[in-house]
Amino acid sequence: MGEAVHLLPGETGAGPAVSLAALARKGLIDPLLAVVFPSQCPACAAELASPSRGPLCETCWAALPVHVIPACPCGLPLPGAVRAKAGCPRCRRGLTPFRAGASLGPFEGPLRTALHELKYRGRRRVAGRLAEAMLRREDVRTLLDAGAVLVPVPLHPRRRRERGFNQAELLAAELGRAGCEQVVFDTVKMRRQAAVAIVEADHAQAETGKAPAQHLVPGQ
Q1: Distance between CA 30 and CA 24 in Å, rounded?
Q2: Which of 121, 136, 135, 213 is nearest to 167 (CA)?
Q3: Confidence class of residue 126 from pLDDT cuts 50, 70 and 90?
Q4: Beta-bridge mates of residue 103
């Protein structure tokens, strides 16, 4: 008896090859991944039905905690007794290095888990999902107007070597794809292990002495 021959897709007699693009068009990528590589949501331990959409299940993505209380113009959430126009203590004392900011939500629950999956487990798809969530907020969309330039804060070189990427750059790139006109990399330097913005741009505000930066944070 001869040996059995296992035909691979695309080989003679095996029929047409099935590409990943074709599977994606038919909506079969996630069902296939869920069967071949079953995995659980790190936030609630539920089985993932859509692994390609990131490490969290859709229920946890929908349950990301978001700020609902008033926020200071710098983006810091304020206690109920403090009016947003009055600003946070740092802004009132002139200690905030930027003029406007926004943050998605408190650093807890599924948002905390998502950020840990991005930073410490290298789940880069998280950046895209966080960008989607941030762009659903009006305060974020207001900051990212037609003339916005995103400059991600750098990671310390040692951290960069350990992780292999900078999560701020990934998030900025995803926000840039969603509509910002420009994302500028490598214009912010590290000094004494702290981020110091050195934005080299021929911009009128750069010579006014005012803080021109806008600040976006996923979790705060």
Answers
A1: 8
A2: 121
A3: very high
A4: 217
